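RETRY 2/3 - previous attempt timed out on the joint model. Re-submitting the same 1016-residue input unchanged.
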Amino acid sequence: MRSGGVPVARRQLLAEPAKLLVALAAVAAAVALVLLLSGLRRGLGEQVTTYLDRQPPVLVGQAGARDFLSQVSVLPPDMVAQVARVPGVADAAPITEGYAMFSLHDKRVLALLVGYDPGRRGGPWQLAAGRRPASANELVLDRVLADEHGLSVGSTLRFRGTNLRIVGLSSGTSGFMTPLAFSTRATANALNELPDTATFLLVTPERGIAPEELVRRIERRVSGVSASLRDRLAANDRDLFVGAWSGPLLAMVLIAAAVAVLVIAITVYSATRDRSREYATLKAIGLGHTALLRLVGVQAGVLAVSGTALGVVLAAAATRGGTELAPKYLIVVTASDIAWMGVASLLFALVAGLAPARYLANLDPATAFRR
Amino acid sequence: MSDVLLTIQGLSKIFGEGETRVDAVRAVDLELGHGEIVLVMGPSGSGKTTLLSMLGGLLRPTTGEILIDGVDIAALSERELPSFRATRFGFIFQDFNLIAALTTRENVEVVLNLAGVGGKMANERAEELLVALGLAERLDFDVEQLSGGEKQRVAIARAVANRPQLIFADEPTANLDSAHGAETMRLLRQLAKDEGTTVVIVSHDERLREIADRVLWLEDGQLKRLEALVRDPVCGMLVDPAKAPARLESDGETLYFCSRGCRKEYEEGSF
Amino acid sequence: MTALQFSSSVPLARRQLLARRGRTLAGVIGIAVALLLVLALKAIFAGMEGRLTAFIDGTGADVIVAQEGVTTMHMTQSALAADAMAAIARVPGVASAQGIIYKGAFVETGPNGRSGIVGLVGGGPVPDLVEGRPPRPGEIVLDRALANQLGVDEGAVVQVLGTRLRVSGQVEGTAAITGSFAFVARATLEQIVNAPNVVSYALVRARPGTDADELAIRINQDVTGVTASTRASFARSERSVVGDMSTDIVRAMILIGFVIGVAVAGLVAYSQTLAQQRDYGVLRALGLSARRALSLVLVQVATLVLAGFVLALGLVGLLALVLPMLSPTLVLSIRMEDVLQAASVAGAVALAAALIPVLHVVRVEPASVFRRTS
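RETRY 2/3 succeeded.
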């Protein structure tokens, strides 16, 4: 309706507050679902690279090593030495890392176990309790994971036939499917029955040497290895880990969008049908077809936009609540996600507004005079 | 008239309390006989609908008794009332109040179902009634497709389906043209005389006085015999002489007016 | 009058539902979609589980021996000590013990070519080939889905950790969204991972007449540093990885699906009831008891939810049919237990959704019939 006039659209929406609330709740739930799922996916992507993000800019693995997490890479001791001798390498710290499928409380818990040489790079960067691993079969475990399973400094964890004693808890290392655990490299190698090997070298370039240049140099001088930029490996990990979920995620997002459209359509359509008499009267007293459609459009738009706003609030609350209840999940909702939802919600309104349009077009103003 | 079917004693209905208190019906006493047609008239807001609702067991009185064949329906529980209504009463509404989702036949059938008659029996009874009312061609129509007169006949068929002792009709002719109105009146009269059904009609329609055995006047929640009322010589409204806001002695006769305005008009000689 | 008699008469609930077909249909679809959230997610995970154990199921091994404490294969590292194979072979009842190596690896067409992640099995039995022959040293068998993704065929050369391998054949049915299986000769994989004589798992066949459970127990007793599981229990454990990892997400989805389902079903039932408020008043005046009015609403909601549930089943069935065609790694598997779970969610939805209109209908006064429509 024209501004300054009687707010017919608003009055009609507010005439049935219960229905309005339920419709808003449904739209909000759908919107929150989309935001949370994509936020979870993004959070997963960030968590996947938690370890790499803290490492020097160049990593060296076995030839063909394209990512950090998903494949095996074995570097024999002589290769470690060869890389260390490449000019421009300030430091090449060997680590032995790999997935560790812990069995805790009869549940499988996946972690990334990093074996590093004490005193060199690659270990935990922040300890919440205890100390770093120094000798065989000592373990530093992510604090959140430890809390979740009632483990603390002094606890013992049986893994691959070995009793690992928890000597410290690290913070800033949690994640769903990739929380971190640290041991000495010797411990990790013993578990793999591969003494003296490493999976990756964490390479720090000398001052003034660009990481890209160092990557080229290493690949040229040492055969049988792949040198990569840390960020490249991280991106590959993210793609692999998060990309796998794109299909199912898209399916869920589409389902949620369908829910939102449907709910708005049901609400607007039923409101229109239930007020067919009022609409007929409005038509009879001279409201044009376009104005009628605008009336419905405004209702659909208000539902969509306020449902989306509520959904954003809901998602924010769920994100906060989720962080409290289950800190291993990181949900990252960005402003662009919200902006996209806003655009999508207008689209929802447009589609949903079409539901009663045909009905309104065919509405006979004369019904206003019928009993 | 024959023996008494319905006895009302001291029937009152009060809505709200304190400043918002409204005495919709005040201490009404009334007796209705079998097969009697009673027309209740009165101005808007006089309590007609409240009275009808109480008689029909739809609204609980504040005080008083409604005895039907010795049963006080005001004392029946919420569990007992619905089946009592279904078997003893028939309702005819101004807006017909047919169930839009059901067909013509089903609208009649459903009240038979409610009274415990189901299946083929209900189906046939509904058909028989509708055919008798000239709706043979409309049995499986959506009720929305029917004309006003047809809708009213469906409503009448529905009201009589369970052979009720009492029919309550609320403005049964208000939404009908004169021909259909007359038809409805004929049907109601036939019902009362042939079947011995007592009919209580609430209406503004003066034509209904023709078929009524008794006409009652409800005003301010109190019943008056219409014979006790006099007509305003100016506007034609019925006025209670005891409460008339204006009166005038003229040629040894007392004239009663609905308002001073009418008396003034009379005095100014426009009549 | 009994409810049965009533239902044999005018089908009031059905008529009321059908009176507003568009709205009823929208409601059914909405509920179906909400339930689909739960069903589809469970089916996706169930499909993954099936694919994860495709290899294990096909090995024909009676007992699978892994490093102590290890009962899974996917995303798992297992290394048997050098003397373990000989020790296993000596356990009474063991007919044969085959050592296999299992490693996660990238298969790529070139340093900058297309790539895909695989669980690389060296030395084990290769599932039924749909094309080509089992791998000889220097060769690899890929899942058809991965081969298509990489755009390679039999005879093409791919790289794994810098080693060039010729594609000798293709298998089917091992590809999940998390990756597929690929097969090479054991010597090839030993060479690739620079680790001779370290096997990941031993596939053990029992002598005729030896019970698998019995044999697993015996191996666990006789050989130190290993964990032996029957194939069935190993597969169960492998499947539980997916279940354990996805529990929280599934729970969250069930909650959200429930909320949306309740909101949609409640909305439709409520607006349905609201639109029929006058009808309810009339029916109450005509002698419909309050209890029956309630059951009328309940039947409508229940029908709505039931129809939504059936539609959701149909939709997830359709997805299970269509999605694998679009993406061969996305397999949906519909399990009875998941259907039952969705059904219980649907039941809860119906109960919660019915509350909204029920509260409304209870308040409908029969006397309202005399009020004029306006």
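Confidence is low (pLDDT under 50) at residues 1-7 of chain C. Closing ticket.
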